[in-house]
Amino acid sequence: MRSEQIKNFFEALFFAPKFLHRIVILFLLPLSLLYGAMMYLRRVTAIKESFGVPIVSVGNLIAGGSGKTPFVMALASRYEGAVIISRGYGRKSKGFVQVSRDGQILANVEQSGDEAMLMALSLPECSVIVSENRKSAILEATRQGAKLIILDDGFNRVDIKKFEILLEPEVILNSLPFPAGPFREFAFTKGYADLVLRENRDFKRSVSYENLSPKMLLATAISHPQRLDLFLPQGVVYKRYLSDHAYFDEAELADLVQRYGADSLLVTQKDAVKMAQFKLPLSIMKLQLEIDESIFADIDLYLQKERI
């Protein structure tokens, strides 16, 4: 329980700080400035390597969900021969794993991680790779004939030459780097991106639902889960939050369903891929992004230049 309370405290400090959080922020500020300075030095001294194939990175400066996964999926579905490379957060494997190749699933969710599996299942025309070593994964993808590589969460890979897309939430209440805030680098480093896209200005989230029931128990393992509140349908009787990318205990969820009289579990698509073998009924929230078409025009122009 104590670790859960600490996690909740820092999540509030990052995304919705109040008076007590601001006192803690003040004490953490020297560490935050030191961390930001180290990350900035790393960025400006890096030598970027080119791989002879167009590379588009979709990332963010703020820890946690900002729409990267659905944005990557929207890109990959638009361009032929796309290969997605992700680190595979939350997976129980290490090293290089080919999650899918031209739509054929070659790994399980524990080997791939939840986001990579969701992308692999949703994109039958693409390939998905997870690897801590992005450069070796890029080399393997080019060997397989990739026409476009999409780096999931790649903004901090400063030693790779690529087209940088940076996603931002609509509201930012704490713009400090770790540990005093949620930023991975100083906020001004967004100037190094080719495109900085803000939610509800350049892209919007839309949610559809599958198999809704009268009473549902929300179970989710995403960062900052309170952001789902805007999209919840009627009938949610209880909310069970786990840490980002965590795996679910079917017996615990079955007990909660019975205790609160729920007819089904309400989950995101990212959660659902880890529950494929569960015998509990699922209601699924499907998130998509509505992206301004001018953004694709900028990406098309980059691809044309790279392929000349």
Please tell me the CATH architecture of the largest domain by its name: 3-Layer(aba) Sandwich
Structural class: alpha/beta
* Average residue-wise pLDDT: 92
Morphology: globular
Instruction: Write down the oligomeric state.
Output: single chain
Q: Could you characterize what this model shows?
A:
This protein is α/β, with parallel strands linked by helices and 308 residues long. It folds into two domains: 45-202 and 292-307, Rossmann fold, CATH 3.40.50; 205-289, Rossmann fold, CATH 3.40.50. 33% of the residues lie in helices and 23% in strands. The protein has nine helices and 13 strands. Helix 1 (2-15) crosses helix 2.
Entry keywords:
308 residues; alpha/beta; Rossmann fold; five-stranded mixed β-sheet; 9 helices; 13 strands; 33% helix
Kindly summarize this structure in a few lines.
The chain is of the alpha/beta class. Helices cover 33% and strands 23% of the residues.
